[in-house]
Write a structure and sequence with these properties.
41% of the residues lie in helices and 23% in strands. By secondary structure, it is of the alpha/beta class. The protein has one domain (31-179): Glutaredoxin (3-Layer(aba) Sandwich), CATH 3.40.30.10. The chain has a 5-stranded mixed sheet.
Amino acid sequence: MRKGIWIAVVIGVVTACGFGLKANAAADTVQAGAAAPNFTLPSQEDKPVSLKDYKGKWVVLYFYPKDQTTGCTIEAHNFQRDMAKYDALNAVVLGVSLDTVEGHKAWCAKDTFSFKLLADPDHKVVDAYGVPVKAMGPAKFASRQTFLIAPDGKVAKVWPTVDVKVHSDEVLAAIAELKK
């Protein structure tokens, strides 16, 4: 009986703490209308990429959990499929995960992505944008979220949840609408 009560107490405390962390992370997410935090991260080419490099362009800054996983691969392939449309709208796509430069190199070589994948293993940019980090044992993953940054450097739209199958279409539609 006592063991059951202690188990219930522990589960209750863990659950309460977990909800608290999620609420705090969501409250810190950069919102539409705010200035986009600047950053510099290495790409799959192991060259630094900064947000300021794209001033005057639309920037699709998308955060994803893990290289070479099913959902992330679908999302990345759809962005790659639509690269000509992004170019026509004066937009660039930048993917960010907690993976390393080496992991990005391998994935880009395998799947031939032409847009930049940025390595953020210390989650500096993930934290700056308030993207929640999830853990599975010792492994950590950024949540799937997207920020559309306008040419003036302000966040124009945020997608706190993403359907990988249609997300690129949603982003393209948002850019087209906001350009009107």
